Amino acid sequence: xxxxxxxxxxxxxxxxxxxxxxxxxxxxxxxxxxxxxxxxxxxxxxxxxxxxxxxxxxxxxxxxxxxxxxxxxxxxxxxxxxxxxxxxxxxxxxxxxxxxxxxxxxxxxxxxxxxxxx
Length: 118
Known about the structure:
This protein is mainly beta and 118 residues long. Helix content is 0%, strand content 57%. It is built from no helices and eleven strands. The chain has strands spanning 3-6, 9-12, 17-23, 32-38, 45-51, 56-58, 66-71, 76-81, 90-100, 103-108, 112-117. Strand 4 (32-38) and strand 5 form a beta hairpin. The protein starts with a strand and ends with a strand. The model has no long low-confidence stretch (mean pLDDT 95).
């Protein structure tokens, strides 16, 4: 399984970016998919996830600004980020979770940098 992110970059505060993650197989196979982010020296943190049944989870800091979507036919999961703040600067990682017999397995993309200038 491969997850490949795209769409990161540099944007001014208040601007928008859309991150996309292309999966090597249909996203219908993933029980949960989403985005995490990490700042150097800090732990990776959840940004947003969406289960195969449609349940979404957002970090409090991004609620009302970010929107996650999944497209099984296109094997994509996306993150629309609006009203970006300098605090959103981080490496963003695509995440996927597949159920296996006796448990599950996590998958990660290579990460894409998002930088928000003040």
